Amino acid sequence: MTPIECNQVLLVDDDPAVLEATRQWLELSNIEVITLNNPQGVAAHITADFPGVLVSDIRMPELSGTELMTQIHQKVPDLPIILITGHGDIPMAVEAIRNGAWDFLEKPFDPERLEEVIRKALITRSLQLENHRLRAAMQDPANTRLLGKSPAITQLRQQVQRLSKVQANILIHGETGAGKEAVARSLHECSPRADKPFVAINCGALTHELVESELFGHRKGAFTGALESREGKLELASGGTLFLDEIESMPLPVQIKLLRAIQEQQIERIGSNQLINLDLIIISATKIDLLKLSEQGQFREDLYYRLAVAELSIPPLRERQEDILLLFNHFVQQAADVHDLEVAPADTAYTQALLQNPWRGNVRELRNRATRFALGLEGQSSAHTSGEPPSSLAAQLEDYERKLIRESLLRHQGNIQKVLDELQLPRRTLNQKMLRLGLQREALLQTETPE
């Protein structure tokens, strides 16, 4: 985040000569100035994110400076306000300081002194706004749910924040375990519907017979086993957001009914003719290309276009290496907090193995690995990969380099000088490589024999 620049002064005085002279001095010092000769107009200029400070005379006919300060602080409690006072008003100014004024100057004031006080107040205002922004960012569901620092996840958070303000159906693309429901919940929690229901249903986890009943509900006696009337997920989510995971698994007859419900914003429960009005946003998720599926006659193209007014793609974990250790440590700490455990940090060999894992199960697989680590069910040396060769040339070269150095260390029984001579490496380079590759001389000598 770039620092918030604050360089504005709202100057209020009923004396036009003082206003003009002060304005000229401050503008020559590269400070932006807004002048008002009537305090009644101040509130219109001050907002919670006003990038500046207020400077006001105390003695004014319609509203005193102290009364103005009280009024503005009710709207923006921490705004720095500087008061200008005559000699006889010093007790009043001192009382104003106790009540929240930033500072006061006595007339006739030194312009340089006023500039000095204003600049300090502007620095304070900049810090205030930065703190407000950081607190808002920490409370933003997109930041708390979609963790990571990679460019891909940063872009995804920005897209979520932007699309959450749009009243449109959204389709999320992502591999298994990539975090599609986390994205859907972030979209809901950032939206104007955040205080309304978020209802999730996994279409792939239900039989074809149950999907329709789960979505649309049913009337008592509508079919065998329907002992009571029941609301469907569409009805329960009305006013809020419905999340349909694995939308590609939805049977074609149900797709037709869902399409009509979206178009009409109305449904009928199974076995009933009564129309029920809906007001909801539908967020769907899939791990396959729905348009290709529609070409095969397994998904309705018209439903696709109703669901995919906007689309988001979640990058797989293997494409955002910068996030792997950050997420692993976060999940380890979560598990440690839940089970009240003290967990030692992972060693270099373990973290290197984490980085080399292909993570076919994405964030879900990483979370499970972190939980097992926190519970002591996985040792430091057990963060193995899938057993297949690394997909990238860099990873394969790194594995080969690790093998050569490990074998040399074992062959020479840990004699570093002999390893340096054999591999023709400077000592500093060997140390750096051993650290990066997770090789520890003492551990190797205790547990390994040369291949």
Describe the structure.
The strands form four sheets. The protein has a five-stranded parallel beta sheet, with helices on both faces. Strands 7-10-13-6-14 form a five-stranded parallel beta sheet. It has a two-stranded antiparallel ribbon with strand order 8-9. α13 (324-339) packs across α15. The protein has 19 helices and 14 strands. It is α/β, with parallel strands linked by helices and 451 residues long.
Topology:
Blueprint: E1 8-12, H1 16-28, E2 32-36, E3 52-57, H2 65-75, E4 81-85, H3 90-98, E5 103-106, H4 111-139, H5 141-145, H6 151-163, E6 170-173, H7 180-189, E7 198-202, H8 208-216, E8 217-218, E9 230-231, H9 233-236, E10 241-245, H10 252-264, E11 266-268, E12 275-277, E13 281-286, H11 290-295, H12 301-307, E14 310-313, H13 324-339, H14 348-356, H15 362-374, H16 393-411, H17 416-423, H18 427-437, H19 441-447
Please list the strands of the largest sheet in the order they lie side by side.
Answer: 2-1-3-4-5
Class by SSE composition: alpha/beta
Average pLDDT over all residues: 85
- Low-confidence segments, given as residue ranges, are 382-391
What general outline do the C-alpha atoms trace?
A: flat
Q: Count the E strands.
A: 14
Major beta sheet, specifics? 5 strands, parallel
Q: Helical segment tally?
A: 19
β-strand amount: 5-15%
Percent of residues in helices comes to 40-55%
Measured between the Cα atoms of the first and last residue, the distance is 51 Å
What would you report as the Rg, rounded to the nearest angstrom?
Answer: 32 Å
